[in-house]
Write a structure and sequence with these properties.
The structure is a single chain. The chain is α/β, with parallel strands linked by helices. It is about 45% helix and about 15% strand. The protein is built from 28 helices and 21 strands. The strands form 5 sheets. Strands 10-11-9-12-13-15-14 form a 7-stranded parallel beta sheet, with helices on both faces. The chain has a 5-stranded parallel beta sheet with strand order 1-2-3-7-6, sandwiched between helices. Strand 12, helix 18 and strand 13 form a beta-alpha-beta unit. Helix 12 packs across helix 13. About 55% of the residues are buried.
Length: about 700
């Protein structure tokens, strides 16, 4: 059935090629070129070096394997099937079909053995940096002499597209700075992208670039030569630095007429070309059939079970010697949630000392929470994109992580440098690996740089916390380049993201508590630079805040409802006081998290935002999303233009985000335009008098 003159290793690589081209042809959709071009590299790594157990895809000390060039997903699916994972051939036949286990790009929690969702180029290698960082930090924290229970590598396949994306620079620069010596990347240097030969738009000295980062670079490896690949992998495994193996390959290798061309990249080869390719490869079996000797050679079931069993024996000895460490390691790496000590610390952070009743910026209130929970949550790994002193993401007694992470060195606060996107993707890698609950900060306006990383956190349901400070025109003099307008709304539009915009220290503490208790998606904390007044009695508010929106002020005989988030809750409360002077009773509703509120039952939502009352919403940002809460007959006060450079107080006056303006607009809804106009002067004079 096969050509016995072809070496077994080549036949094993060819199995990947034929499965890839057959699956893409069956779907009439997909990318056969990369799997066919990297098949020999995959055979060298997976059959001879990768430590994994197909029967236990979540084994803690397995090597991680990431396909950063995720369009080549059939390479990964072929590897998983061939190695013995629970991915039957029937699912390869259903490649890219509805509800299959083989989606167009790899997705975690869909296919056993997939370590991260990839497709947006450059993020896979960046996730891998996070995984390698987690391995290094966990090893330094938990390993003891004679007990190396954390000792695995992270391998990555990547292509020209990943290297063209700027995020690869951000993450790989940090990998070199940190000395992540168990990170090995294989560069598929085939010179082809969708538009053709890359020389016209990608002519970098890639090996020189990575050497400048502090990586070991293995140059000019023939990606179709098994012996050369074995030597390169041996060199990589011996390095004390992260490693880039530059593999010269042909995209679509094996296809007589498509190999080395852009047409091999992203379209089916066609029946005629597949027939010619089978002939060229000496492969006589029909689609989706494999020679018995090739299937047997690929199976990693026995080898994987032996490796994980040997580790389990070593871990049992570790558990006897260090029972508390072993228990904590399992809890953290198995994503078992926060400890009782952590929950107690979160509860303490939400308590109401007198100090919380003072005016405080919510970014500072956030740091106050960290000062309480940081020492109690060892898996908490914070950071900032070069704005630690502004984001206030550190806490008393934190350990900064800077430079090379030598044996035994550790830390719990990461200086990511000015790398917002890289930070987001690395945090995703940390969360995927297990052992850490990552959070990282930058200014809210720079969430744009990190946005696709936030989206991937949401898609993968990763419990990552984004601390976005300087959340409105309230940051003042830095001007419109730094003043977020659409950003909170933009983040709210991403499915599965909880966007919290707390109004005071108490809401900030609850936002942290709920974000860390959540294990199925990310949270964004939008925090102020400016001080905000205490909004109310927290002992009665904590559970209500956790539901995303609640009634903060409820007078008798209500005539209008005022909705607000963040810094504008204080504006709404002041407006309610002005309205009371005009004989109008106003309910005030704080909406710290639209996303959580919309998950509440209909009865609760109707009880908080009654439809029989006219409603006015106020937020110092885009108005669009608020209309669903106020209705066509309501009103929204916000900002749908860019800001200005001036002190914060002047900006709020300029843009009409003031108590007087809110009161006037509310009166307009309750009594009509004429009454509101006459009352506005009184409200304005009252406001001026209060100043």
């Amino acid at each position: 059935m096969t050509n016995t003159s072809i070496p077994l290793r080549t036949q094993c690589a060819n199995a990947i090629r034929v499965l890839a081209m057959d699956a893409v042809q069956a779907a009439n959709s997909g990318h056969p070129g990369m799997p066919m071009g990297m098949a020999d590299i995959a055979e060298a790594l997976w059959r001879h070096h990768l430590k994994h157990d197909p029967s236990d895809p979540k084994w803690i000390d397995r090597d991680r394997f990431v396909v950063s060039n995720g369009h080549g997903s059939m390479l990964l699916y072929a590897l998983l099937h061939l190695s013995g994972y629970a991915l039957p051939m029937s699912e390869l036949k259903r490649f890219r079909q509805l509800h299959s286990m083989t989606p167009g790009h790899p997705e975690i929690d869909v296919t056993p053995g997939v370590e991260t969702t990839t497709g947006p180029l450059g993020q896979g290698i960046s996730n891998a940096v996070g995984m390698a960082l987690a391995e290094k930090l966990l090893a330094n924290e938990f390993n003891r002499p004679g007990h190396a229970v954390i000792d695995h590598r992270t391998y990555v396949f990547l292509g020209d597209g990943c290297l063209m994306e700027g995020i690869s620079h951000e993450a790989c620069s940090l990998a070199g700075t940190w000395g992540l010596n168990k990170l090995v990347a294989f560069y598929d240097d085939n010179g082809i992208s969708i538009d053709g030969d890359v020389k016209g738009w990608f002519n970098d000295d890639t090996p020189g670039r990575f050497e400048a980062y502090g990586w070991t670079v293995v140059r000019d490896v023939d990606g179709h030569d098994a012996a050369a690949l074995d030597r390169a992998i041996a060199t990589a495994r011996a390095s004390q630095k992260p490693v880039l193996v530059c593999c010269k390959t042909r995209i679509g290798h094996g296809s007589p007429n498509r190999a080395g061309t852009a047409k091999a990249h992203g379209e089916a080869l066609g029946d005629a070309e597949i027939a010619l390719t089978r002939q060229a490869l000496g492969w006589t079996l029909p689609p989706f059939e494999l020679p018995a000797e090739v299937s047997a050679a690929w199976s990693a079931v026995e080898q994987g079970a032996a490796a994980s069993s040997e580790w389990q024996t070593r871990f049992e000895a570790y558990s006897e010697a260090f029972p508390e460490l072993a228990s904590e390691l399992l809890r953290r790496c198995n994503h078992e949630g926060l400890s009782m000590k952590a929950d107690a610390a979160l509860a303490a952070a939400c308590a109401e000392p007198e100090a919380k009743r003072a005016s405080v910026a919510t970014r500072k209130a956030s740091q106050d929470v960290l000062n309480v929970i940081g020492p109690a949550i060892p898996e908490l790994l914070g950071g900032s994109a070069d704005l630690t002193g502004s984001n206030l993401t550190d806490w008393k007694g934190h350990l900064p992580l800077k430079g090379l992470i030598g044996n035994g060195a550790t830390g719990n606060h990461v200086h990511y440098g000015v790398r917002e996107f890289g930070m987001a993707a690395i945090m995703n890698g940390l969360a995927l690996h297990g052992g850490y609950r990552p959070y990282g900060g930058t200014f809210l306006t720079f969430s744009d740089y990190a946005r696709n990383g936030v989206r991937m956190s949401a898609l993968m349901k990763l419990p990552v916390v984004y601390v976005f400070t300087h959340d409105s025109i309230g940051l003042g003099e830095d001007g419109p380049t730094h003043q977020p307008i659409e950003h909170a709304s933009s983040l709210r539009l991403i499915p599965n993201v909880d966007v919290w915009r707390p109004a005071d220290a108490t809401e900030t503490a609850v936002a942290w508590r709920e974000s860390l208790r959540r294990d199925d998606g990310p949270a964004c904390l939008c925090l102020t630079r400016q001080a905000l007044p205490h909004a109310g009695d927290s002992h009665e508010r904590l559970d209500a805040i956790a539901r995303g929106a609640y009634v903060l002020r409820q007078p008798a005989g209500e005539q209008v409802a005022l909705l607000a988030s963040g810094s504008e809750v204080g504006v709404a409360l002041a407006a309610a006081a002005l309205l009371a002077e005009q004989g109008v009773a106003a309910r005030v509703i704080s909406v710290p998290c639209m996303d959580v509120f919309e998950r509440q039952g209909a009865a609760y939502r109707a009880g908080v935002i009654p439809r029989h009352l006219p409603r006015v919403a106020v937020e110092a940002g885009s108005t669009g999303l608020w209309w669903k809460f106020v209705g066509e007959d309501g009103d929204v006060i916000g900002l749908d233009r860019f800001g200005e450079s001036a002190p914060a107080g002047q900006l709020f006056e300029l843009f009409g985000i003031t108590a007087a303006a809110v009161a006037e607009r509310a009166l307009r809804l309750v009594r009509g335009p004429a009454a509101a106009g006459s009352a506005a002067g009184n409200a304005g004079r009252a406001t001026a008098a209060s100043h």
